[in-house]
């Protein structure tokens, strides 16, 4: 059962090998001491297929949640990198809304309360004022759908300048004031695009629904081992603690899918990341048990 007296710490689904079954992924997460996982629906055909899951797939995952105690409170819906709302191609924009609608319905069926959005106007196209306008329109219509579904949409602070800081995200929060439209800061991304990430966290604290904990270094936003990058975790956790943030933290890392791991090996790897993060959280003032 989820413990409301502890700070929740979760792990990104992609930190576990793609070859693992759901049972193996959730077992490894539990063995490593995590409280939850974040479901991934990315731009790959394999994960896009999850948007069309039937009753059997939903039943299996919900049953494993009950069995393992690992919940899925959030979904990383990064499929919009392939099908962005800001695209100048009307068919791509149409697909973006289809992905959004199906993502919201999947969230409802799994009991997921928050969808983390990949906040790109476009990714594989050139950004300009037209793509930004299309993106804003897409967000407005998506938030309307999310409100009807009772699911929060949260803009991730991203790995590109478009919304690489909380300050840039506030433009969209002002344009779309809604309890169903919030932000999901990534400490690693924020640290590379802002010279003062602590002030950024203060600026957005009232709109923050969860925090990504990821290591980065200048120009490198993925697969940087914890402790080898430039993110000042202790300072950022101290700031969040001082601001009274008590919500979810989610460790973001990626498995090496070229290597066949056992469940025990995977649990050890993500467990080491958890130990690192917990040590930095404690230095920042959080009371975290092993």
Automatic annotation (TrEMBL):
Q: Which UniProt keywords apply?
A: Isomerase
Organism in which the protein naturally occurs? Qiania dongpingensis
Does this entry carry the keyword Lipid metabolism?
Answer: no
Query: Molecular function (GO) terms listed?
Result: intramolecular oxidoreductase activity, interconverting aldoses and ketoses; L-ribulose-5-phosphate 3-epimerase activity
Superkingdom of the organism of origin = Bacteria
Question: What is this protein called in UniProt?
Answer: L-ribulose-5-phosphate 3-epimerase
Entry's PANTHER family? ISOMERASE, L-RIBULOSE-5-PHOSPHATE 3-EPIMERASE SGBU-RELATED
GO process annotations (BP): L-ascorbic acid metabolic process
- Residue intervals of the Xylose isomerase-like TIM barrel domain: 28-272
């Amino acid at each position: 059962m989820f413990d409301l007296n502890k700070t929740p710490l979760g792990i990104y689904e992609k930190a576990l090998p793609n070859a693992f079954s759901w049972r193996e992924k959730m077992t490894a997460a539990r063995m490593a001491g995590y409280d939850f996982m974040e479901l991934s629906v990315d731009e790959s055909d394999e994960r896009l297929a999850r948007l069309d899951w039937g009753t059997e797939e939903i039943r299996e995952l919900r049953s494993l949640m009950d069995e393992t105690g690992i919940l899925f409170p959030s979904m990383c819906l990064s499929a919009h990198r392939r099908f962005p709302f800001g695209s100048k191609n009307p068919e791509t924009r149409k697909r973006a809304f289809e992905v959004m609608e199906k993502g919201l319905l999947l969230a409802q069926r799994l009991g997921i309360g928050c969808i983390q959005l990949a906040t790109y106007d476009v990714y594989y196209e050139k950004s300009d004022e037209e793509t930004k306008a299309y993106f804003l329109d897409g967000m407005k219509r998506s938030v309307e759908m999310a409100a009807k579904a009772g699911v929060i949409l949260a803009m991730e602070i991203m790995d590109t300048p478009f919304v690489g800081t909380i300050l840039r995200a506030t433009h969209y929060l002002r344009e779309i004031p809604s309890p169903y439209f919030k932000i999901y800061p990534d400490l690693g991304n924020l640290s590379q695009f802002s010279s003062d990430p602590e002030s950024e966290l203060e600026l957005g604290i009232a709109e923050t629904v969860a925090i990504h904990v990821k290591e980065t270094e200048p120009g490198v936003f993925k697969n940087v081992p914890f402790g080898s990058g430039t993110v000042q975790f202790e300072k950022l956790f101290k700031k969040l603690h001082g601001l009274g943030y008590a919500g979810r933290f989610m460790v973001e890392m990626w498995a090496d899918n070229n290597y066949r791991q056992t469940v025990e090996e995977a649990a050890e790897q993500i467990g080491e990341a958890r130990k690192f993060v917990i040590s930095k959280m404690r230095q920042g003032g959080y009371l975290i048990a092993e």
